[in-house]
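Encode chain A's predicted structure.
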Amino acid sequence: MVAPLPVVAVYIKESWWPTEDVLRTSDAAREGLMKVQSFGERIVLFILNVVIFGRLERNLEDGDMFFLPHSVKEQAKILWRDGSAVGFYTTKRKGSLCGDGTGACYLLPVFDTVFVRRMYRRQGLGMAMLQDFCETFQEDEALGVSWPISPAMYQAHPGNAKEDVSSQGRTSPDDGPRQCEEGKKWKKGLIDGLRGH
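Encoded structure for chain A:
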């Protein structure tokens, strides 16, 4: 297998920018999770997803997940730390279409994609993003998590029980997600686990 060539710069606004420079900000207020709202933030999301994860940090031998570029309609938050974009997560809104050419809609908010750069892993940042997702949609009775779930995501689940997580991926006969008592218990367990109860 041939290793992909490293991406060292991107062409934006008629000039070349080192990849790491695109992921930096001088705005001191940009710290923690920030909702993606501007075109520039969409570029940062794209660089994190397609260049950093897709080309530089994804381990092809381990069968790491692959994310398609995110739609402009998709909600996303970028995780900023010390002036650098170090991760992101995206969500599918309740009521949004499941895909092009289908009339099916998401029946609940879904935690869709999540990524933390290698050098920032094992610091609780993935859990912080999961907690932020749960707090953002605290009024909803049930929340969803996209499938397939990576092995790292299984480790984030309170109780670390694969069978509990995999049961949430089940769908109704019409292939739409379903809300059930187990889902409510899973959400409560997830939130309690994140709060340390």
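The first strand starts at residue 9 and ends at 12.
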